[in-house]
Amino acid sequence: MRFYHPDSPQAAARIVALAVLADRDIGSSELELLDRLAVHAQLGLDRNELHAVLDKFCEDLLSSEQLQWSDTCPVDERTLAGLMGDIEDPALRRKLLHLCVEIAEADTRVTDGEAIVLKAAVEHWGLHREMLR
Predict the structure, then answer these.
(1) Which backbone phi and psi does 129 adopt, to 5 degrees?
(2) pTM to 2 decimals?
(3) Longest distance between any two alpha carbons in the chain, whole Å
(4) Domain membership of residue 43 as a residue range
(5) InterPro entries, from UniProt (predicted)?
């Protein structure tokens, strides 16, 4: 897995990429949502940079022994915790949680993989109260 500095736009974009890939499919509804919400701009990237992080994350998953496509989430618990640990800023955590929820709901259903990513974000980032808003 590539190293990104904590709270960097790339580390944040990788969480978005995880949410996009959590259902094991990069759907057109999710890609359209990324553009419609200007997720790249919200994270401090241009559109091509966001897509480059998405591509690199896919490469990392394909070359990684942590890849768990047979399970409900594309990464194992240790990798998932590491990815969540790269986001330390409370405001960025809240922003990413909201973006991930929107991504998960983009195709009108939340899969088990997407639910695992959302639950991991809530638990690792201590955002239990955010889910009640």
Answers:
(1) -70, -30
(2) 0.89
(3) 38
(4) 9-132
(5) TerB-like (IPR029024)
The answer to whether residue 1 sits within a structural domain is no
Query: Residue 64: inside a domain, yes or no?
Result: yes
Helix (H, G, I), strand (E, B) or coil at 53: helix
User: Using an 8 Å Cβ cutoff, are 24 and 113 in contact?
Assistant: yes
Within-domain flag for 107: yes
Give strand ranges (E) for 1-133: none
Q: Is residue 82 part of a domain?
A: yes
Q: What is the distance between the alpha carbons of residues 122 and 97, in angstroms, rounded to a whole number?
A: 8
- Looking at the structure of the chain, the number of domains it has is 1
Return all residues near 36 (Cβ < 8 A) that are at least 6 apart.
none
The per-residue pLDDT for range 100-119, each reduced to its tens digit, is 999 999 888 888 888 889 99
User: Of 121, 26, 19, 131, which is closest to residue 73 (Cα–Cα)?
Assistant: 19
